[in-house]
Design brief:
This protein is an alpha/beta fold and 165 residues long. The protein has one domain: Response regulator (Rossmann fold). It has five helices and six strands; from the N terminus they run H-E-H-E-E-H-E-H-E-E-H. It has a six-stranded mixed sheet, with helices on both faces.
Length: 165
């Protein structure tokens, strides 16, 4: 889980580098990344693991270089309670109040699909670690995933079990 989370942070930083290059910001302005994660609710361990992985990354890499300039990274963690309506509120808050340039999470499809709509509407990159629902990214150029889609997983399962009709 930690390797996946760290990989997703790196992926988001890379995607945001292109976005950030277009933003007129001074070298002192940090790159802000939001985490829309379940710190409470039905699956708080997922949120805790995401936060721990991000903090490990930040400890080793407090700055990134974009376009020849060095920028500090600043992470914002917000609790979506493992609920769709909270995930929408968290994405909105991270974008409109905290001014993040990108969002990691929500993890699961039930939160990532509605949160992805918010991110896409605000033209803010979002990556979901394991949302397999095709609607998470459907017609959403700013929303990404770090896993396979449900239909692929289903066919792969059938292949493994040699039950393809």
């Amino acid at each position: 889980m930690r390797k996946l989370s760290i990989g997703l942070v790196l992926s988001l930083v890379a995607v945001m580098a292109f976005t950030f290059a277009a933003v007129d910001a001074g070298a002192a302005d940090p790159i802000k990344i939001g985490f829309n994660i379940p710190l409470t609710g039905d699956n708080p361990d997922v949120g805790a693991s995401s936060k721990n992985a991000a903090e490990m990354y930040l400890k080793k890499n407090p700055k990134v270089e974009v376009g020849g300039k060095s920028y500090a990274l600043k992470f914002f963690y917000d609790d979506n309670e493992y609920k769709a309506e909270s995930a929408v509120k968290v994405s909105t808050k991270l974008i409109t109040e905290e001014g993040v340039l990108g969002i990691v999470g929500p993890q699961s499809s039930s939160q990532a699909v509605p949160a992805g709509e918010v991110a896409n509407n605000y033209a803010t990159p979002m990556i979901s670690p394991w949302s397999t629902n095709p609607n998470t990214t459907l017609d959403r150029p700013y929303v990404f995933r770090g896993c396979f889609l449900d239909p692929f997983q289903y066919h792969f399962f059938l292949l493994l079990h040699r039950t393809i009709p």
